[in-house]
Every structure is written in structure tokens, then in C-alpha cells.
Amino acid sequence: MGGKRNLCSLLLLALLMSCTNGESPYRFYDWNVTYGDIYPLGVKQRGILINGQFPGPQIESVTNDNLIISVFNSLDEPFLISWNGVQQRRNSWQDGVYGTNCPIPPGQNFTYVLQVKDQIGSYFYSPSLAFHKAAGGFGGIKILSRPVIPVPFPPPAGDFTILAGDWYKQNHTDLKAILDGGHDLPFPDGLLINGRGSNGNTFTVDQGKTYRFRISNVGLTTSINFRIQGHKMLLVEVEGTHTLQNIYDSLDIHLGQSYSVLVTADQPPQDYYIVVSTRFTSQILIFSLDVDFLWSEILF
Ligand SMILES: *[C@@H]1O[C@H](CO)[C@@H](O)[C@H](O)[C@H]1NC(C)=O
Ligand SMILES: *[C@@H]1O[C@H](CO)[C@@H](O)[C@H](O)[C@H]1NC(C)=O
Ligand SMILES: *[C@@H]1O[C@H](CO)[C@@H](O)[C@H](O)[C@H]1NC(C)=O
Question: Ligand 1 pocket: which residues have CB below 6 Å?
């Protein structure tokens, strides 16, 4: 009896030690925020780039990781980044919202220290001041489960991020002036996927395999409807929660929301379109051309 109890306490002690032992990993990011020319709708615009990229770099992390993100503001105005969906446990000083976080002055840097404590899922970051979001500065955040935590679906053959949303040809200062003047924003000029309009994104897939698509609506004014021609989508995650797995032909994604779906490439080899359209608007914008869902077979 006593021996058994000792063994139990030993096991418990070992378990406790393995739990307290070892800090969660750190991931370091060095970002430089600049203006730069972008042409998402075919006309030159002054975009907000992070390390020269539009959209900005993707944050790839695992539950509990510490994210140390040093942001240098090379714009000529104050800048702040907010981490949509990152819970900021016991801490409101890093959330990048004006009021709890001071703007980063032009020519200066700030280091965000975040921990994605107990979180999983798909999110995005975006600028939170001065309507900068209308010029870019957003990017995806992916939080994978730790290897010891079971995920309620088999590992997909690929994991794609889709940052979709409406877009204006007017720049962020002009759009802000419209709002500040007490008016509604006009109807958007187009829809973008991953910072591109009609000149194309291609996701290449292998026939028979299943892929995860993490879709966020990073737009300013409109809900979007997302679908993949000829394919069903299995909803598996909504903003960090594994959901009941329902099958959909199309999904409505409202502003700021992020969903994950699994799509199996189970149709005959050819190009399929990813289609995004505006929802609940009297006019409807459809984005479908030039976003190919390519089977790798047809590349040969
Ligand atoms: C940021 O990028 C700009 C433009 O490329 C460059 O001039 C500047 O030195 C960079 N700043 C930092 C801190 O990397
Ligand atoms: C700004 O960057 C420098 C050099 O990388 C670093 O030493 C400093 O801690 C940063 N300051 C802030 C407030 O993040
Ligand atoms: C936005 O465009 C207006 C002209 O329509 C221009 O005066 C202004 O400087 C531009 N703002 C930025 C940040 O480029």
C-alpha cells in the first residue's frame, strides 16, 4: 500500500516537474513599416507594406508561443498594429488599440510582447489608427496546436491563408476624410485576395488530397461570400474553436471574421475558381477571375 502511494507521489512529482519545466518557445519578428507602390486593382496606389510586403508577413506560431514583434514605423504618421483574436491574457498593454497602447511615432520602434496562451486557430493583424487598414499593413496569424494535443481532423496536405476583403482606389486619408465628414463610405471598387485583384493567385493542389483554407475577411465595409467552384467545404474552425463539422457550398464571412475549411480535391482535373462576392449589398461585386484552383496534373 505504502509503496504504491510512494510510486503515485513520485509519478505526480515527475508530472508536475515536466509541466513546470521549460518555458514556451520564443519567436522573434523584425518589421519595418513603409509606404510603397501597390497595384491591386491595376492602378498605382500608395500602400502600407511590412518588410516590403503587402499583405504583411504571416505569423506562424504554436499554442503558448511567445511572439516578440519589433515594429519600426517608417511612415510619416503614428502607427499601431492590433492583433485581432489574440487574447492578451492578463494584459491590455500590447493589444495595439489606441487608449491602451501609445501609437508608435514616425521614425521610432516598439516591441510587442504577446503570448498566444492556450490558443489555436486563424486570425489576422491589422493597423488600428487613421484608417491605415485601407492601405494595407495587415497579415495572417496562424496558431497551430501543440503536437501532444489531438486535432479533430487528419493533418491536411497543405494549409493556405486567404485574406479577402473589399478595396478602394481612394487612399486612406481620403476615405478617412469621408467618414470624418459624417458620410458613409462609397461602395468599394473591388475585392482582393491576398492583396491581389485580377492578376492572380494560384493554389496548386494534388488530386485526392485534402487542404485547409484559412479565410479571413480583412475588408472595411462589406461581408463576403466565399466558395470554391464545384467543391464542398467542411467547416472545422471558427476563430480558434474547432467547430461541429458541417459541409457548406459557400460561407458568409463578416468583417473581421476568420474561418477554416477543409477542401478535398475530388473533382476531375481542371482549373477551378475561388469565388468571393460581396454580401448584403444592393450592388454585388464578384471576384472570380484569375484565381485558379489548379490541379498539379495539368502543370505537366
Ligand atoms: C525601413 O525600410 C526603408 C525603406 O526600404 C529603409 O530606408 C529603412 O532604413 C528601413 N528601416 C529599418 C529600421 O530597417
Ligand atoms: C528599438 O530597436 C532597438 C534596436 O533593435 C532595440 O534595442 C530597442 O529595444 C527597440 N525599442 C523598443 C521600444 O522596442
Ligand atoms: C491621398 O490622396 C490625396 C489626393 O486625392 C492626396 O492629397 C493625399 O496626400 C494622399 N494621401 C496619402 C497618404 O498618400
Answer: 32, 34, 72, 74
